[in-house]
Amino acid sequence: MRVTILEKSDLAARLIIEGISPPLANTLRRISLSEVPVMAIDDIVIYENSSVLHDEILALRLGLIPLKTDLDSYNLPEKCTCKSELGCSLCRVVLTLNVEAKGGVRTVYSGDLVSENPNIVPVSDKIPIVKLAPGQRIMLEAYAKLGRGKDHAKWQPVSACNYRYKPIVNIDYARCDGCGKCADICPKRVFAKEGDKIVVVREMDCILCTDCVRVCGIKPPPIQISWDDSTFIFYIESTGSLPVDRIIFEALKIYEEKFTEFMELLKGLRE
Ligand SMILES: [Zn+2]
Question: What's the 44 CA to ligand 1 centre distance in angstroms?
Answer without folding.
Answer: 16
